[in-house]
Amino acid sequence: MPTIHPSFVRSLAMRIKNDGVTFGAMADQEMPFRRPLKSEALDLGYRVRNAAVLLVLVPEAGQWSVVLMKRQEYSGVHSGQIAIPGGEVESGDGDAKATAIREFEEEMGVKVPASNVFAQLTERYIPPSQFSVVPFLGFLNELPQWKLDGKEVAEAIIVPMKNLLVHNALKNMEIVLADGRTAILPAYSFDGHVIWGATAIMLTEFIAAWKTTFPNALKVAKDGSN
To answer: Domain 6-214: which CATH class?
Structure first.
């Protein structure tokens, strides 16, 4: 099982800190249309809700993977979708990072130490639900035993980084929208799951940062060395 190297996280965190705007723009370029900004939604008078998510790296089967989840079926617009664990900011949260850590623990049943949260990605506004989401990156040194919140989470989905790093991992796929219409949108696929929408954008930004930081991207995904 790989052990996190200080240089591994330090390198990735520093690159995102210095070039995060570039990686956000690279992700936007992969999308078929420009998404509105939070500021634009507020100018239009929409009631924007603030949220945060935590994309966590874990060692699984001798390689680094990311933790996603499948939402339970419900009446909302994100019913049954694949998502990064997270949720709405609450009054008791000190900041968005605290929200991301709290929500990850509530949904996945695992506490990620604040010291293991090492970077922040581009804030994304999600028009269908009017959430503005701040994504954070974290890691765990061991694959934990998940204690899923069965009301919100149907399944934990552990996606190997190598599946996301290969050429053409992001492909145009036919997506069934909440209102029953279909659309061709960029998406990742893994083990029968289709990962699209805001989750796909956030993953694309993270992948851009990973590939730029590590020339041997797949090797780092396997053993955590760079």
So the answer is: alpha beta
